[in-house]
Specification:
Number of strands: 8
Distance between the termini: 39 Å
Strand order of the largest sheet: 4-5-6-8-7
Low-confidence stretches: 1-5, 10-21
Bound molecules: zinc ion
Mean pLDDT: 83
Order of helices and strands: HHHEEEEEEEE
Radius of gyration: 15 Å
Shape: globular
Number of helices: 3
Largest sheet: 5 strands, mixed, barrel
Strand content: 25-35%
Number of domains: 2
Length: 144
Amino acid sequence: MGKEKVEDTRFSRFGVVSFTALTKVNDFVDYLEQGKLMGTRCKVCGKVFFPPRADCYSCLSSDMEWSEVKGKGKLLSFTKLSYAPVGFEGELPYTLGLWDFGDYKVFGWVSKEIPEEELEVGMEMVPRVVKLSDDRLLYEFVKA
Ligand SMILES: [Zn+2]
């Protein structure tokens, strides 16, 4: 049981590169191509997960459906990185944030359009899908 309660957030930390390793949630990338940021919702208990999970750690169901991240998120915290995992060195420096969408939280990049001094906890932001130079897809947050 203890094992089931550990939320696996590894691929949110390492970005789009690692999403492809999770065969059950590969559709995430297809949705990004359509400009949609998706999490999953448990059809049994209604819990929403981001990053998307194939199994619900709350009720242990595997009956999940896609659920679009919609509306505004409130910035809970952010941090500027000067070190990046392999594959992201070219993007440095960048800022990561965590947003509260009510029932769930979303981890992601803060758009470089936003000067760091304008960022403040509590500000409302929305996700936006962007294509990077080498055809990778990513989502970032911009002002709502
Ligand atoms: Zn559930």
